[in-house]
Amino acid sequence: MSGHTTLTVDLGERSYPIEIGRGLRHRPELFAPAVRGGQVVIVSNETVAPLYLEELRRTLSAWECHEVILPDGERFKTLETVSQVFDALLARRCERSVTLVALGGGVIGDITGFAAACYQRGVPFIQVPTTLLAQVDSSVGGKTGVNHPLGKNMIGAFHQPNAVIIDTETLGTLELRQLRAGLAEVIKYGLIRDPGFFSWLELNCAALLERDDDLLAEAIARSCRNKAAVVADDEREAGQRALLNLGHTFGHAIETAVGYGEWLHGEAVAVGTALAADLSVRLGWLQEGERQRILRLLAASGLPLAPPAAIAADEMLRLMALDKKVSAGQLRLVLLRSIGQAVVSADYASALLQETLLTACSGRQG
Amino acid sequence: MSGHTTLTVDLGERSYPIEIGRGLRHRPELFAPAVRGGQVVIVSNETVAPLYLEELRRTLSAWECHEVILPDGERFKTLETVSQVFDALLARRCERSVTLVALGGGVIGDITGFAAACYQRGVPFIQVPTTLLAQVDSSVGGKTGVNHPLGKNMIGAFHQPNAVIIDTETLGTLELRQLRAGLAEVIKYGLIRDPGFFSWLELNCAALLERDDDLLAEAIARSCRNKAAVVADDEREAGQRALLNLGHTFGHAIETAVGYGEWLHGEAVAVGTALAADLSVRLGWLQEGERQRILRLLAASGLPLAPPAAIAADEMLRLMALDKKVSAGQLRLVLLRSIGQAVVSADYASALLQETLLTACSGRQG
């Protein structure tokens, strides 16, 4: 793929474009329609800012441009960090028409979006995601928020960005481990609703890890098209949007158990996906052959398939029960009927979930 | 008035009732339609909880009921206090279907509403306002949030309650100073859009201060009817909802200058209203005779008419410039054309605003 692709997240008056292409961070005309007032504030972190902040400042030079640089890492995705953003916005006398620009990965996007949701009861923001995970998942859809010591993403808001501007060149500076973690969310779209994409990933996984530009751009566009369709149908997660959480209830438990930031979110989701597939097979819903394909693709992407050895099965279960997906005390999970078809269900024997966890937490990888 | 009045805030699928009457805190059937899941959490403060918490717990005994008791006062309307509410909700494993119940004045309502807006990206809440100010103004309309050292209500969200349940009996335990402060917001509705109500208040002000039950209920209902109409037309304050801020830009500057909690919000709004009237007369928009009527009604309500002596005019101006109503550097103010007609305007000579502030801050009361 060359040039530049525009997708739209169709949400009525809150609709917004997703722009995907090389070098988009240099194109002020893509930012202009999404900037409301005369002030912009770039929120970034200590890893990304040295790479791209000055370039982005030049692109935004038509506006009064400030910046807030946060420490890097999931463990800083807290209310305290959001409070630092508020301090900076107020110290610079930012008005209600200020536009925030999130330059970084999923943590920066989630923090910036939540700050935008709450500053003066809501200001616009633009996502400029620089990790694969943020480009294919967290920057699209308006879920914003921070973690609490007792649970991930427990504090937040739905607040849609005014634009998502994905410069695929920023993947050139991304750590390989981060690239692999992003693939976990890419694979998710194939599993929950796009079997053709899953097969395409089986063919192209190796080339993606070698950062073939055109293939990465295609993987991002196909992922965003799936995400945009799901979000447009179900902005507030009343129904099918919950399918996007495949592997996440298991994954969040792992992230909470090991401490935020030890495992990457995508790594935890990969394990969660493997566990969801395992339980789905035990329920007789998924064929063992399909589970093997899933495990092979995750492994080929360099992703883990089992929880860290230190976590016991009962600890996993306890942490999963804290998840937002609990309703009336019953844990709802995203499970698989086949590659390309997922369901949200609380209708499973809890003994089977325990088997899945006991098997996985004793170290076997299925 | 006896029995009980129901008004509706008409916001499509987010519409909700305002119930007004004596002893409503004892009526579970008014709460039931607004409770979504099986858990309720009452958020209250150290002043109100000893008076009404046990009664309300009994009313809500059909649900799993928890409580969070916060310190009392505007100076606790901070992000740190909201964070304490999150801690309590997570420690009690509250689910996404939990319903929060704000039992207290405007501070409790604003904190609880903001916590409800952000907990797990949004849970329902019910307002049970126990001060006149909260009953006639802050509990209706979905503005929630907290203060920042650099500005009032700078962090927050629009999040509509599922119901507002106003038990007029709770005014029986309200300090007289708080009752007076509430009248400032009641008078506001007369000034901005209801001249008949203003005249009614001129006649009945003394009886209201003596806590005549029927008259208080009527004043609350007429105030809420005005507020509900404004909010239904303009939920997000794109237009006429801004008129509800009459006196508030001046008032917030006073509150910030003296430190949150020294002056009551309504007291600061009363002074702000007097200053807005003064500037309106200087602009030739309001007749001096009408200004005198306004000052007389504020004075009869026992409200202050001038800022504290310690604040200089240039300090007032500097603090007003931090207000959310600033757009492109120009301060928009709510000003009066007559009793019953207000306008939002940035179209005034700043020299006249300075005259208003210099006159007021030198201690003269007009």
Brief write-up:
Chain A contains 13 helices and 13 strands. Chain A is an alpha/beta fold and 366 residues long. In chain A, helix 4 packs across helix 5, helix 6 packs across helix 8 and helix 7 runs antiparallel to helix 8.
Order of helices and strands of chain A: EEHEHEHEHEHEEEHHHHHHHEEEEH
Strand order of the largest sheet of chain A: 1-2-9-6-5-3-4
- Mean pLDDT over all positions of chain A: 94
Structural class of chain A: alpha/beta
Describe the sheet with the most strands of chain A.
Answer: 7 strands, mixed
Strand content of chain A: 15-25%
Low-confidence stretches of chain A: none
Query: What is the oligomeric state here?
Result: homodimer
Task: Give an account of the 3D structure.
The structure is a homodimer of 366-residue chains. By secondary structure, chain A is α/β, with parallel strands linked by helices. Chain A contains 13 helices and 13 strands. The first copy, chain A, has helices spanning 28-31, 49-59, 79-91, 106-118, 132-138, 176-193, 195-209, 213-233, 248-258, 265-282, 288-300, 313-320, 350-361, and strands at 4-9, 16-21, 39-45, 64-70, 99-104, 125-129, 143-148, 151-158, 163-167, 326-327, 330-331, 333-338, 341-345. In chain A, the strands form four sheets. The first copy, chain A, has a seven-stranded mixed sheet, sandwiched between helices. In chain A, strands 7-8 form a two-stranded antiparallel ribbon. Chain A is globular. The mean pLDDT of chain A is 94. Chain A binds chain B through residues 37-38, 79, 83, 86-87, 90-91, 93, 95-97, 117-122, 143, 145, 148, 150-151, 153-158, 321-322, 324, 326-329, and chain B through 37-38, 79, 83, 86-87, 90-91, 93, 95-97, 117-122, 143, 145, 148, 150-151, 153-158, 321-322, 324, 326-328.
